[in-house]
Amino acid sequence: MNKIFTVLTAVLISATLWAQAPQSFSYQAVVRGTDNALVSNKKVGMKISLLQGSEKGKAVYVETHKPTSNENGLVSIAIGGGTKDPSSIAFTSIDWANGPYFVQTETDLTGGTSYSLSSVSQLLSVPYALYAGNSKDEQKLTVSATGDTLYLKNGGFVIIPGLSNANPITKPTNGYGPNITDVEGNSYKTVYIGTQQWMAENLKVTKYNDGTALNIIGTTLLQDNTTGAWSYCNNDVANNAKYGKLYNWYAVSPTTNGNKNVCPTGWHVPTNAEWTVLTEYLGGESVAGGKMKEVGTTNWNSPNVDATNTSLFTGLPGGNRESGDYYGIGSGGCWWSSTEISTTRRFCVKFQINYKYLSLRY
Length: 362
Prior knowledge:
Elements lengths: L2 E3 L4 E2 L13 E6 L14 E8 L5 E8 L8 E6 L3 E2 L16 E8 L8 E7 L4 H6 L8 E2 L5 E3 L5 E3 L16 E6 L5 E7 L2 E4 L15 E2 L12 E4 L7 H4 L1 E4 H4 L19 H10 L3 H8 L27 E3 L2 E3 L4 E11 L2 E8 L6 E3 L1
Parallel strand pairs: 16-17
Antiparallel strand pairs: 1-18, 1-19, 2-15, 3-6, 4-5, 4-8, 5-7, 8-9, 10-11, 11-12, 13-14, 14-15, 17-18, 19-20, 21-22, 22-23
């Protein structure tokens, strides 16, 4: 039976902070050929460009490298430590406060300079030491309540995931976090719940975060589809703005879709263990559902029992789709877990109109 559910994602972030202002930062990438096969133990040519403002922004800094991949296809370089393009500004002249910045990677699998493979990803955090080492103006710094954002007097900000020993500020356990954006530009609220950070809106994207399109599951697509695909709730585009989209297992499982990720960069579909952490923080499965459901009957059918949304998760009843049929819109919602029990059994999370409990089921 093919099942299609809603996707929300949890984020786990780690980073290293430098005490001194380095003139480079580490960058790793997995090299694959056009056939998606790993390029292992091979010298490759790489051209790195730091783009300012957007994925198609001006290249303010360009350098080249010739690293050798390991057995897993992984290459490690230091951006700022390569061979600088003669027309590029100096790495030390980059104005990190005037972002955002994107890393464009171009690769020649033969080790030369005929670059044929290209990818772009946003540099989501700039090491503060790099910014401080290039600060032209005296700045008044204000640390956010989460301890991971420095707000500057000029209106800019620098995000530093994680906490340093010198700044032991406790991350929030509740309240909204910064919005995030997917590959198509859709923006989503986020919320802190306990030790985790979650999206507070359902996913709407039609592509993996590398730009590869998912299939559309309409009335003509067979239910035994085995590629990543999505559908509108009740096959009605009008439901997209409110409920987001429904996704099949192959859209959310990296083990079945070539290690692709449908979530915004830096985010992932939560595992069963991560859902369990969430429900236990909210008091257990017997009461967590009520704390995660949107209040009222604007979107939920009556009676929407014990809905308080104290977590701000704001779960909506987008229903689900099984064997080609749609169920439960207005009365229940199902969210994917990336945990697979077997090739035919996978975890999801469900809560409904008549109950305050949340169930982890498959």
